[in-house]
Amino acid sequence: MTSAVEATVYARVVAADELRDGELIPVEIDGTPVVLVRHRGEFFAVQNNCTHRDFPLSEAGFDARDGLLICAWHNGCFDVRTGEAVVPPPTEPVETFPVRLVDGWVEVGLTGSLEP
Ligand code: FES
Q: Do the domain assignments include residue 1?
């Protein structure tokens, strides 16, 4: 019998040049809703649910000056780089996910229990 291990598995999401600076797209990775954002040439991935009332952040506005996702329901804001809730009503951060570039593709990592 084998035991489960914690591992980060990367999923290829989009070609890096398909997302312009300040753009965001929703993606679903292994059943997990994620929003991917390009900000100042870097890519960031956070959970696609506002921690206030669960509104999809892929429908949020994006303030490129400060790197903030602005929830479309009650205007709560999250720092896309850290997931921190910086403007209420949300007080809890959104989960962030690792992102890497491989051969011009953006890959988002999820950590979970995987059977070896
Ligand atoms: S649901 Fe996002 S601020 Fe209320």
A: no
Q: Is residue 52 part of a domain?
A: yes
Q: What number does the ligand 1 atom closest to the CA of 71 have?
A: 2
Among the atoms of ligand 1, which is closest to the Cα of residue 90? 3
Task: State pLDDT tens for residues 9-37.
Answer: 899 999 999 999 999 999 998 889 999 99
- Domain coverage including residue 93: 11-108
- Tell me the one-letter amino acid at 111: T
Model confidence, pTM: 0.89
- Mutational test site, ligand 1, from 51, 52, 69, 87, max ligand atoms within 8 Å of CB: 52
Per residue in 34-73, is it b (16+ CB within 10 Å) or e — as a string? bbbbbbeeebbbbbbbbbbeebbbbebebeeeebbbbbee
Is 19 inside a domain boundary? yes
